[in-house]
């Protein structure tokens, strides 16, 4: 029955259009593609007009799936056309292999879109713009790394399945794996950095030592995690430079993560003043500065005498802020205002150097320093 229909189409094309067999086949293929494109346009237009206005998410889904839908309709129409076209069995087998590869590519493409849509739907519950975005950064990082790993796996499986659909390639692959030997070892060594980074990506997605927008300190540089790929991490430094670090770095080497559990941080300000400084008055001023600053989160404000040196006293002020940038700005603000307060209210409390001058003649005759009238000078 199929063969009768096949030659009926050929007879119609030959009788009406006066075309040879190969040109009739091309005409059928072109006509099938045109019909598939028209059908795709009608389906997309109908779905958008009926569901797009009321359901914007459905419209977004249609936009992403427009390409796979077009390819699916073309493969379906060409499968029908090849069945009725006047071609021999060898040419039909070649066309069948091409359509099989196209169908496998369609499945891989659809899987990639499904992973992308699924990850976006899952991440809609989280917002990185929130003030305390720790949970959002955790899930965005995890989903992003796992999505890239899934995309890589889908692409590899799609290409491998497409190649294995050809008998010649399948036999070559089997013989290649059977005689791997030194070549296999060389390929394994060459691919070791890639494989180590992929494994590190899975470890980071599960354990999450870093997340997007985390503040980190490594290699003497301070910055924010801007991008995490399957092989490297991009860190935006404080002066807007970018540091690119292999993904395996965060598994193999130590680094500081300032926002591991929470974005809040405690900043420290050190002052070196004279022993005559009124610590309690300065503590009250620190509290006043913290309360007036919008950068302070209202949790920690402390002023302590952290050390006493031979000429100065070390004061350490601790203040908490909601984030690392806020903590840095708060430290600078407090340091500036405390110094200004000392200059205005307690200038004698600034660091000074004391010198004792003894009359030379009296000291030469054997008088002790306690018996000689001293003349003291103080220099700042």
Automatic annotation (TrEMBL):
It is found in: Membrane. InterPro entries: LSM_dom_sf (IPR010920), MscS_beta-dom_sf (IPR023408), MscS_channel_2nd (IPR006685). GO terms for cellular component: membrane. The keyword rRNA-binding does not apply. GO terms for molecular function: mechanosensitive monoatomic ion channel activity. Residues 194-260 form the Mechanosensitive ion channel MscS domain. Pfam families: MS_channel_2nd. The chain crosses the membrane at residues 20-47, 68-87, 99-123, 144-166, 172-191. Keywords: Membrane, Transmembrane, Transmembrane helix. It comes from the Bacteria. PANTHER family: INNER MEMBRANE PROTEIN, YNAI-RELATED MECHANOSENSITIVE ION CHANNEL. This is Mechanosensitive ion channel MscS domain-containing protein.
């Amino acid at each position: 029955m199929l063969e009768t229909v096949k030659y009926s189409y050929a007879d119609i094309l030959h009788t009406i259009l006066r075309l040879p067999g190969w040109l009739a086949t091309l005409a059928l293929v072109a006509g099938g593609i045109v019909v598939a494109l028209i059908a795709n346009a009608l389906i997309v237009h109908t779905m958008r007009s009926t569901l797009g206005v009321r359901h914007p998410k459905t419209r977004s889904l249609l936009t992403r799936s427009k390409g796979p839908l077009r390819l699916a309709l073309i493969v379906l129409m060409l499968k029908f056309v090849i069945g009725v076209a006047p071609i021999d069995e060898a040419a039909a087998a070649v066309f069948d292999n091409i359509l099989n590869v196209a169908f496998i590519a369609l499945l891989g493409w659809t899987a990639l879109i499904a992973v992308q849509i699924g990850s976006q739907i899952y991440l809609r519950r989280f917002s990185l713009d929130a003030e305390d975005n720790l949970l959002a950064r955790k899930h965005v990082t995890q989903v992003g790394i796992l999505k890239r790993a899934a995309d890589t796996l889908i692409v590899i499986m799609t290409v491998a399945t497409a190649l294995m659909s050809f008998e010649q390639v399948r036999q070559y692959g089997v013989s290649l794996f059977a005689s791997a030997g030194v070549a296999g070892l060389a390929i394994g060594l060459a691919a070791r950095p890639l494989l180590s980074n992929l494994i590190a990506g899975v470890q980071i997605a599960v354990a999450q030592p870093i997340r997007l927008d985390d503040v980190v300190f490594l290699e003497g540089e301070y910055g924010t995690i801007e991008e995490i790929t399957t092989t490297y991490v991009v860190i935006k430094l404080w002066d807007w430079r970018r540091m690119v670090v292999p993904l395996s770095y965060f598994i193999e080497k130590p680094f500081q993560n300032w926002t591991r559990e929470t974005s809040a941080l405690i900043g420290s300000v050190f002052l070196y003043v004279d022993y005559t400084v009124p610590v309690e008055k300065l503590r009250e001023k620190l509290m006043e500065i913290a309360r007036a600053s919008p950068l302070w989160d209202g949790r920690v404000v402390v002023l302590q005498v952290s050390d006493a040196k031979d000429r100065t006293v070390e004061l350490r002020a601790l203040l908490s802020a909601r984030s690392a940038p806020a903590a840095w700005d708060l430290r600078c603000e407090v340091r500036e205002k405390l110094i200004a307060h000392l200059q205005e209210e307690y200038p004698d409390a600034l660091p000074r150097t004391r010198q004792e001058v003894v009359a030379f003649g009296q000291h030469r005759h054997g008088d002790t320093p306690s018996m000689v009238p001293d003349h003291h000078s103080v220099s700042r």
